[in-house]
């Protein structure tokens, strides 16, 4: 009679074949020496590089088991422990393992109730760890004190390139600690501080660091109660900073004045993507400042102004800039109160613009008249490949005209986003915003949104040629 310790290896392999990766990694490791030896030769375990334990409620005890394995494991490179309630104690276990582990490069600890003490444990590990490149501590509660611990570690750590400290109750003081670290750190390229409370004072600290930092390329300051003054600090820093390429101001309060500061900086800075969307209070005047910068800027490729208040007048300013701008490829004007007149201005620009490939006009006030202008422009425009006109009250007849214009378009590789709001009848599927950087939606079910008596899929399907190797994607 066999016991587990004497079972033939082939039978143990068969048992392992029926276990999931979590069991293999967390429960079968370190049971006994023989099982460890068998695991080390088992193909699934030997080639396991990514482990996702998202939302499994493992707690600090589970974190300890995982940490025990990490000390000796030599294959795992990415570990996701999001939403597991590991707390400070669990963070300590993971941090202790990071001192010895030499293969893990990506660690996600999002939403684990980690406070300043847990941040201290992780920071201590970062001082000696030489393999971790991406760390996600978003949606914890490390506060200013925890931010200081992490910042101090960044002074000596030479491998971390991406750090997410979003939604951590970090204020201006914490931002100052991080800024101090940025002055000497030469490896961090991506920093996310979204949904904290750094305010204008914190923005000033970060801006001061940007004047000398030469490695950071992406900075997310979304939802930080930054107004025009804070935007001015950042803009002033952009005039001398030569490495930052992506800047996100989502849901701040910079207004037209702040937009002017950012626009002025764009005249000389090499930023390629700037996002100042949602509730920033940018109106037609702010759009005018940004448009003026677009006329001379030669590096910006993506501009996201969704959920502001630029209206038809602001759309005209942006459209006028598109006639001469030769670098912008992505423009997001979702939810800006743009009507038929604004659509006409944009359509006129599309006739001559040869660089824009993605345009989002979703959730505006464009009716059949405005959509007709867009359709007419598409007959001559040969570069636009992605267009979103959802939630605009466009009827069947004009939808057909747009589809026909797309079919005649000289560029067959057309990605068409179509989720028209029904004029009458039909139901719009329930959905929620899913991407804070854009206007994509996640719906409960895929399918066509009915518009009146007919469905827009009739004309969309007609766009596909009978014989072609081109890959088409339709999003509904």
TrEMBL record:
This is F-box domain-containing protein. Pfam families: LRR_6 (PF13516). Coiled coil: none annotated. Residues 1-48 form the F-box domain. Keywords: Repeat. CDD domains: F-box_SF. Residues 419-442 are annotated as: Disordered. InterPro entries: F-box_dom, Leu-rich_rpt, LRR-containing_regulator, LRR_dom_sf.
